[in-house]
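Dear support,

We are seeing what looks like truncated structure output for some complexes. This example has two components. We would appreciate it if you could run it in full and send us the complete token output so we can diff it against ours.
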Amino acid sequence: MLTYLAKRLAMMVPLLIGITFISFLIMHLAPGSPTDLATDLNPKVSEIAKERLTKLYGLDKPLPVQYWNWLKRLAVLDFGRSFAPDGQPVLSKIADRLPITVTINLLSLALVLVIAVPIGVYSATHRGSLFDQATTVFVFLGFATPTFWLALLCMILFGVVLGWLPISGIKSLNHDQLSWAGQLLDYARHLALPVLLSAFTSLAGMSRYMRGNMLEVIRQDYVTTARAKGLPERLVIYSHALRNALMPVITILGLSVPALIGGSVIFESIFAIPGMGKLFYDSVMARDYPVVMGGLVIGAVLTLVGNLLADLGYALVDPRVRSK
Amino acid sequence: MTKITAALVFCLFFALAPGQAAAVDDGGSLVMGTIGDATSMIPMITSDSASHEMSGLVYNGLLKYDKDLNLVGDLAQSWTVSPDGLTITFKIRQGVRWQDGKPYTAADALFNWQFMVDPKTPTAYSGDYMKVTKAEALDEHTFRVRYDEPFAPGLASWTLSQMPRHLLEGKDVRASELNRHPIGTGPYEFVRWDAGARVVLRYFKDYFRGRAHISQVTYRVIPDMATMFLELKSGGLDWMGLTALQYRRQTETAFFKKNFVKYRYLSSSYSYLGYNLKDPRFADKRVRQGLSYAINKQEIIKGVLLGLGRVCTGPIKPGTYWYNPKVRHFPYDPAKARELLAQAGWKDHDGDGVLDKDGRPFEFTILTNQGNSYRANTGVIIQQRLAQIGVRVKLRTVEWAAFIKEFINKGRFEAVLLGWTMTPDPDQFDIWHSSKAKPGQLNFTYYKNPEVDRILTEQRRTFDREKRRALIFKLQEILAEDQPYTFLYTPDALPILAARIKGITPAPAGISYNFTDWWVPKALQHPALTR
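Here is the complete output from our reference environment:
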């Protein structure tokens, strides 16, 4: 097991370097450079000023040199400073945006699990029933509805017409004057719509997975055996079948680790949430290379770690994998 | 609809103007919506409008623009230009203090010039300041700059936001605290900035002109226009810029009339169809004039801007000192268009409905950038009108960076649909002078006219406003006659504000020029009452 772990960890280093190299290349191949976007078609920008900017950002050096310098800094975990005028360290920029994105994603993931697992199980055990058909329609509605449209409708209903919930942002203007509990409630009110909506759109995937797995497991011999020895149906389903049906969910959870730090640009724009998706998108549009690369590296590491965790989790749960 | 708005504005003006001095209350707050977040609070190293806007209330320049877009003193009490036009001397106001209590002096002004020309400063705007050959602080309250040759547009460059020397000198600007926490001399002090969410400002009690009436100003970043509008409707915002559609169709309800006031005035930009003058077809003036007659600009304004704009005849903003209204106009006249094109040799010889010359049909591609629906729609309307006189047009949109790099800078286009900002200073040198007709420069349509070159050079050397105006007038006449662009329209700015905010008086400069005079009546200052 330990050698397995060590091997997997060692494998990650060249993989990571490969990912960063390709990302770096593609980013620089995109037309335009950070200085262009600040200076193009602006009558007050002189040629000399443009050259100075290029030099300041180190963009006058050949690409391999730029990559090497970046890699050297990365080795000591220095992600550099953003090309944006405030020149903030990349890490602090990401740290500003990360908590809110992770919070929303975790809450919505938890909500999805809480709703989708029972739906999946019940649909599988009552296959073809009215409940099964109704939930199928419901989750696929969620899957097919454009989020931005639904979000606007909800904002109009809950924000403007009923006035129950705030429309956008993550806290009120008077947030700082509120008590501890008041602040928590303020966050909850702001996050209610984003979390519910993002959960609604991802119900379909998880509940279908659950239903499919469950259907497969129920047909297995050991379930028949359990039933044959006279166990109550509840025990058969929840103790014997469900545990086995949950296994693929671990894989999905492992693969969702990188998704936890990724936000959707459309979603964040609509709700005016200062999250990772918007930061990353704006950085790409501004060709802010250090921030883009910082985001990519973190995403890549999390993907690799997520995969590793899923595999390890599998090995822990499933004796058959361990023995291989 | 327009009449109602005009009437509202009118009433407001007359209701407030006489009693204003007596009945102004201090206090209250205002929340403004903005699409983008600022990138830094040191405005001269940024190039986005959000940064300039949000930091605008924190700083002052030596000079500023008044309501009619004329230069007046700000931190400088007065200024004099030497008779030879080579030196400008600023007399600096006494008793001005930075928000941290230190006095503002000529040494600060000098530092700001040094900061702008320092190669280590990542600014894109050093050009105007590098023309200064010598700058000196003669005493605490006198700052003098010297140029090698008279440079009239240079005066406008002294609207430069003044940064505190004692906090910035000798420091790396990109690592400076001021990026995230500005300190200026302006009417508002910085309070906090939540990245991507909001910037909060509070009035500066020792502002040299007396405190601003409204106590707190918040900019909220809301990237989506639809969300922003809903926030406005629910009471979460007091001020935003409307889209044409929102102005016309969504804010005509009793609710909006009771709680908000809409304003409408010309914005400082124009859209145009620019021709590549290296293309022999467009090198012929008659062709360009013909196309200008064939395009119905009123129709574009009606269709694209829902009527919220004005036909534009040249690069200078109408209603300002420099604008010449008596230039040649090109109203929609397809008969005249056909006639001019026929004179240039473009006729439908083979009867296929498309004009041709030497066996070549008249067809070209209009290029524009992605993500601007106004421009895309304008292109469609132009395409249809030109088809009617027998010119076949294709439309193509390209992502901005590629658009600039691959097409504009390399001159690889036939015609482009783009826009320019109209700056308060009328210097048009970079856009029309033949020396700027090079790859990567702004005269990318390759317009070359010796008379225009002469005027552009001359007006830069002329500090005398009347004389300079005569030159700028002539420039507008020539450009209107030559039609290197078909000048299309200037859109209206369409801000909407909560009705409780008083003291707003629209002028050619817009509404925010007298922001510090705005106020909220005591009874309406509690935020809960604004819903």
